[in-house]
Write a structure and sequence with these properties.
Oligomer: single chain
Helix content: 25-40%
Distance between the termini: 31 Å
CATH class: Alpha Beta
Bound molecules: flavin mononucleotide
Strand order of the largest sheet: 1-2-4-3
Order of helices and strands: HHEHHEHEHEHH
Structural class: alpha+beta
Number of helices: 8
CATH architecture: 3-Layer(aba) Sandwich
Length: 190
């Protein structure tokens, strides 16, 4: 099953290969070296004033931490994400006054984006999840009050769509769609 997009000009292979599966091989173990490569990709992401406002909680399948993270996912995500080799909770620094910091979310998204590409280079697939219980995760991971949970993403080996229950199976085999460039490039499209 190919999920490679049709593009008007070639993208680099890793970007063309990336997509977000839900069927993961639940026997696959990620190595510490692979995990470190992915974390280094996040560590070396650019950020505003080099503020590095991201923090990661790394929960390998089978650990106590993993169970806590799974309990912090909403129902649909709980149906597929636990099979991934690892779940990574991304937290971001709040503003001094305790409010959410837009720029820090931007920086953290950029870090996760690079981590996804690093994972792809190891033939590991990532899937980000906003369907999470933010406050519950903050509590169970005993995160400090200057942090807020942004997203959880899974990393692992892709498996067959047949392993999934509906509606995830149908989504797994659906073709990928995007808005046309003519809609998203407001000015200066070649
Ligand atoms: C911030 C963010 C939150 C997301 N939340 C979820 C989620 O809770 N559950 C889920 O199954 N997919 C989630 N996704 C995956 C998107 O649905 C997916 O990236 C999008 O449909 C594009 O598909 P592709 O990544 O395969 O290109 C999320 C993606 C992002 C970037």
């Amino acid at each position: 099953m190919s999920k490679t997009p049709d593009t008007s000009a070639p993208m680099t292979d890793l970007l063309a290969a990336r997509w977000s599966p839900r069927s993961y091989d639940q026997t696959h173990e990620i190595s510490d070296q692979e995990l470190l490569s992915i974390l280094e990709a996040g560590r070396w992401a650019p950020s505003s004033n080099n503020g590095q406002p991201w923090r990661f909680s790394v929960a390998k399948r089978g650990t106590e931490l993993h169970q806590k993270v799974v309990e912090g996912l909403t129902g649909f995500n709980q149906s597929w994400a636990p099979a991934a080799s690892v779940l990574i909770v991304v937290s971001v620094k709040k503003s001094e006054d305790g409010s959410s910091h837009k720029g820090n979310f931007y920086d953290a998204g950029l870090a996760v984006s690079l981590m996804s590409i690093q994972a792809q280079s190891l033939d590991l697939y990532t899937h980000q999840m906003g369907g999470i219980l933010h406050d519950e995760l903050h509590k169970t991971l005993t995160l400090s009050s200057d942090l807020e949970v942004a997203v959880v993403f899974s990393v692992g080996k892709k498996d067959s769509p047949e392993k999934l229950a509906e509606p995830a199976r149908e989504r797994e085999i659906a073709s990928r769609t995007r808005l046309p460039l003519s809609e998203i490039v407001l000015h200066g499209k070649p």
